[in-house]
């Protein structure tokens, strides 16, 4: 599942492998994968352009081009981007191919076909994708417990729902939200306004730890060069309904919170909020 660690790893790989290289040609195999402009205009806009920058905003990969445009890539759930030799066999799930100078190509693939790309002048693209409306990044050094407290303040919604609201906090996905709440010992159904200062601090540290350990293990998917990350998709609680909690052996429970599948340990994450988090076990 492509969440922040997976997207950040690919972004870092792109900085290493494609900055300064020109897009010699490209092919759109699945027109629906192009969010805007039209597929033909997408090809025209990118052909001959040089990639000058690679950065991430939430779960978007943003590739800056030498003419002031930006190419945005979003993996959705299971999209992947790989760098392969030009002319390599095309997997059946290939959506877009960007052929680079010097004999390599970027393949955007997705078994579900949901991954999307878009290109346009940077300011226009950011506006259309509403990137400026996104909340702060968890991995940003400016994201402190005080910032988190302000973002959660006056939010009379369940914690899980608030954490997944991209306008409040950018990029935290379903998996990493569940794991962060488990690490912090917080019931995902509690109202965001109910957290004490200590609980906010624990949650802040848990969110950072979950994402940083995901990065250290290079995510759960394959990186740009085809190497599989070492992080596990099913970690301590996520999608482990009925399995024993790694900390206390209580069966993991499951419920839909705000329309999203949510997993937690009833003992380590009590509804009344008296626990301090798991006492043992690891994230992966």
From TrEMBL:
Pfam families: Fapy_DNA_glyco (PF01149), H2TH (PF06831), zf-FPG_IleRS (PF06827). It catalyses: Hydrolysis of DNA containing ring-opened 7-methylguanine residues, releasing 2,6-diamino-4-hydroxy-5-(N-methyl)formamidopyrimidine; 2'-deoxyribonucleotide-(2'-deoxyribose 5'-phosphate)-2'-deoxyribonucleotide-DNA = a 3'-end 2'-deoxyribonucleotide-(2,3-dehydro-2,3-deoxyribose 5'-phosphate)-DNA + a 5'-end 5'-phospho-2'-deoxyribonucleoside-DNA + H(+). SUPFAM superfamilies: Glucocorticoid receptor-like (DNA-binding domain), N-terminal domain of MutM-like DNA repair proteins, S13-like H2TH domain. Residues 236-270 form the FPG-type domain. PROSITE patterns: FPG_CAT, ZF_FPG_2. Keywords: DNA damage, DNA repair, DNA-binding, Glycosidase, Hydrolase, Lyase, Metal-binding, Multifunctional enzyme, Zinc, Zinc-finger. This is Formamidopyrimidine-DNA glycosylase.
């Amino acid at each position: 599942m492509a969440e922040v660690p997976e997207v950040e790893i690919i972004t870092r790989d792109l900085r290493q492998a494609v900055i300064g290289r020109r897009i010699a040609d490209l092919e759109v195999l699945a027109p629906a994968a192009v969010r805007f402009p039209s597929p033909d205009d997408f090809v025209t806009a990118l052909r001959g352009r040089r990639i000058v920058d690679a950065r991430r905003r939430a779960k978007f990969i943003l590739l800056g081009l030498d003419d002031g445009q930006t190419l945005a890539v979003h993996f959705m759930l299971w999209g992947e981007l790989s760098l392969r030799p030009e002319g390599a066999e095309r997997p059946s799930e290939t959506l877009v191919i960007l052929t680079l100078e010097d004999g390599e190509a970027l393949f955007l693939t997705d078994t579900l076909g949901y991954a999307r790309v878009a290109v346009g002048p940077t300011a226009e693209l950011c506006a259309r994708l509403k990137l400026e409306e996104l909340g702060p990044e968890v991995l940003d050094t400016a994201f402190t417990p005080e910032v988190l407290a302000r973002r959660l303040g006056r939010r009379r919604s369940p914690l899980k729902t608030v954490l997944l609201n991209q306008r409040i906090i950018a990029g935290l996905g379903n998996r990493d939200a569940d794991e962060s709440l488990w690490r912090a010992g917080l019931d995902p159904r509690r109202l965001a306004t109910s957290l004490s200062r200590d609980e906010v601090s624990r949650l802040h540290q848990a969110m950072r730890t979950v994402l940083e350990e995901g990065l250290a293990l290079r995510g759960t998917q394959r990186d740009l060069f085809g190497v599989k990350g070492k992080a596990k998709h099913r970690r301590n609680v996520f999608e482990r309904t009925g399995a024993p909690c790694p900390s206390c052996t209580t069966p993991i429970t499951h419920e839909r919170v705000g329309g999203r599948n949510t997993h937690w340990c009833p003992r380590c994450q009590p509804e009344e909020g008296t626990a301090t988090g798991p006492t043992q076990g690891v994230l992966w």
